[in-house]
């Protein structure tokens, strides 16, 4: 009989466990049924073993404590009352019909009090555990949300961010850093030394000796980058590496400077033009009078400087009036031929001074008037610094290999651009010629940017070499930031 009861109890316990695991919609009923089974079986075993003196009532304490931890509401007190009632009835029945000691009823009472104490304490402990569990869950959700937000911020940052773990492994990097260093999407555990040796050496020097923070180096596409390091307080000792695009920072600073400069110079230019016209007109009137050689020389100086000032004012006003590009597909060979004829006629040049090379049928997406002004500025600048002889200025046409871009090369036979001023030639009002305004190259680059093209100074062993590169397949161009800033 005892063997059968034990087997049935084990089966009932396993069934309750399976139901509680896979069917939790009626958990309270399942728990109550299990407690009834536990109380009934333990009471019967205790009766067969001689009452509370057998010590089997302790099993009910374990069962009651477990039920109180996971139970809800007043059911905990119901379980304690059920166990108390079962113990007292079993012990009373044993005293009456089976000759149990009458004093054992006192021991049953103490055990019953222990049932209520166990149930209440276990319930309080269970409430605290559930409160801590709920707090941990909410903290976990907040932490997960914060991680998602931080990841989103890092991914959308315009600066490159790398997380370097122990062993100089790249633990994580955002898309900007991948583009700067040429990393692919699966290089998250690559060694930094293999991907960016210069950056790895700088990090090693900074980590070991507190080296320079703000190393300048070249990225995979030739961009000038600056690296900054910061140690984190994480247990893994990761190091944050911030990569800044120096060229983009300079461009942003240039745009801010030009925005304020444009507003100032435009207002000044309007105020200067009227008195400048009056001075020029007065000079013309003085030239009509008969004067000596000294007066003629002074009038020539006056007239030359009036013309130069008028050209500067015109360039400034043109810079402020840059209109939105209206690009079209131009036959670049035909356009350049017409431009050279017009330029030679205007400047009274020999036909062999400005030459066109590689005049194959190519198309370029560009605003017609903008391209004319860009070429005029470049060719005028090249002619000013050239020898002025045959073939002094060359316009070479060609296409960049593989990327579908058309290039115009303007090359002169002059002394070239000195190395110490190569970074400044595109800045406004910077010039190395006494007759220059310092705005020609700047306006040319801004017009190229407006048309989605680029203007760059190429390396050259002799003479200056400028390259205009633009698309030849589409003319749906947005307005660049540089053009908006110049306005």
Description:
The protein has 487 residues and is of the alpha+beta class. The chain has 4 domains: 2-147, no CATH class; 158-247, Beta-Lactamase (2-Layer Sandwich), CATH 3.30.450.20; 249-320, Helix Hairpins; 328-486, 2-Layer Sandwich (Heat Shock Protein 90), CATH 3.30.565.10. It has 14 helices and 12 strands. It has helices at residues 2-22, 27-48, 58-70, 75-97, 104-156, 175-181, 192-195, 197-209, 246-288, 293-320, 332-347, 368-385, 440-450, 481-486, and strands at residues 160-165, 169-173, 215-218, 224-231, 239-245, 328-331, 354-357, 363-366, 393-400, 405-412, 454-457, 465-471. The strands form 3 sheets. Strands 2-1-5-4-3 form a 5-stranded antiparallel beta sheet. A 5-stranded mixed beta sheet has the order 7-9-10-12-11. A two-stranded antiparallel ribbon has the order 6-8. A hairpin with a 7-residue loop joins strand 11 and strand 12 (465-471). It is rod-shaped and about 155 Å long.
> How much strand content do the residues show?
5-15%
CA-based shape: rod-shaped
Number of helical segments with 4 or more residues: 14
Number of strands: 12
Tally of discrete structural domains: 4
Helix content: 55-70%
- CATH homologous superfamily descriptor of the largest domain: Histidine kinase-like ATPase, C-terminal domain
- Separation, N- and C-terminal Cα atoms: 100 Å
What is the topology, as strand order, of the major beta sheet? 2-1-5-4-3
Radius of gyration: 45 Å
CATH class descriptor of the largest domain = Alpha Beta
The biggest sheet amounts to: 5 strands, antiparallel
Query: Kindly state the mean pLDDT as a whole number?
Result: 79
Unreliable spans are 477-487
By secondary-structure content and strand pairing, the structural class works out as alpha+beta
> Any idea of the CATH topology of the largest domain?
Heat Shock Protein 90
């Amino acid at each position: 009989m005892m063997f059968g009861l034990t087997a049935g109890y084990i089966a009932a316990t396993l069934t309750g466990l399976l139901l509680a695991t896979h069917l939790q919609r009626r958990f309270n009923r399942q728990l109550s049924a299990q407690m009834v089974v536990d109380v009934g079986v333990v009471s019967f075993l205790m009766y067969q073993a001689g009452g509370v003196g057998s010590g089997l009532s302790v099993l009910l304490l374990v069962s009651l404590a477990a039920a109180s931890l996971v139970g809800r509401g007043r059911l905990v007190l119901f379980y304690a009352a059920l166990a108390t009632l079962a113990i007292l009835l079993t012990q009373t029945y044993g005293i009456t019909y089976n000759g149990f000691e009458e004093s054992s009823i006192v021991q049953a009472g103490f055990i019953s009090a222990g049932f209520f104490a166990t149930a209440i304490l276990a319930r309080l402990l269970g409430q605290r555990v559930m409160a801590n569990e709920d707090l941990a869950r909410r903290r976990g959700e907040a932490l997960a949300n914060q991680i998602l937000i931080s990841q989103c911020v890092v991914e959308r940052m315009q600066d490159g961010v790398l997380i370097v773990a122990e062993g100089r492994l790249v633990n994580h990097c955002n898309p900007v850093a991948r583009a700067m260093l040429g990393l692919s999407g699966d290089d998250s555990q690559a060694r930094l030394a293999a991907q960016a040796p210069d950056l790895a050496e700088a990090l090693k020097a900074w980590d070991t000796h507190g080296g320079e923070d703000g190393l300048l180096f070249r990225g995979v596409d030739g961009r000038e980058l600056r690296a900054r390091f910061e140690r984190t307080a994480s247990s893994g000792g990761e190091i944050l590496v911030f990569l800044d695009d120096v060229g983009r920072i300079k461009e942003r600073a240039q745009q801010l400077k030009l925005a304020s400069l444009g507003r100032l110079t435009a207002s000044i230019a309007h105020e200067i033009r009227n008195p400048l016209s009056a001075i020029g007109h007065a000079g013309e009137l003085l030239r009509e009078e008969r004067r000596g050689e000294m007066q003629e020389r002074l009038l020539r100086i006056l007239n030359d400087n009036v013309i130069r000032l008028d050209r500067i004012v015109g360039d400034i006003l043109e810079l402020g009036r840059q209109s939105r590009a209206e690009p079209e597909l131009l036959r670049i060979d035909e356009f350049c031929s017409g431009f050279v004829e017009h330029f030679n006629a205007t400047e009274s040049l020999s036909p062999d001074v400005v030459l066109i090379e590689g005049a194959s049928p190519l198309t370029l997406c560009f605003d017609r008037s903008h391209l004319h002004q860009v070429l005029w500025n470049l060719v005028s600048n090249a002619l000013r610094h050239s020898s002025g002889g045959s073939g002094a200025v060359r316009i070479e046409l060609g296409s960049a290999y593989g990327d579908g871009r058309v290039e115009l090369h303007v090359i002169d036979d002059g002394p070239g651009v000195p190395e110490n001023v190569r970074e400044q030639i595109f800045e406004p009002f910077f010039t190395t010629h006494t007759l220059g305004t310092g705005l020609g190259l700047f306006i040319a680059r801004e017009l190229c940017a407006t048309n989605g093209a680029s203007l760059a100074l190429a390396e050259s062993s002799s003479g200056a070499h400028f390259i205009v590169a633009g698309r030849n397949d589409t003319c749906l161009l947005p307005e660049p930031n540089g053009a908006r800033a110049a306005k």
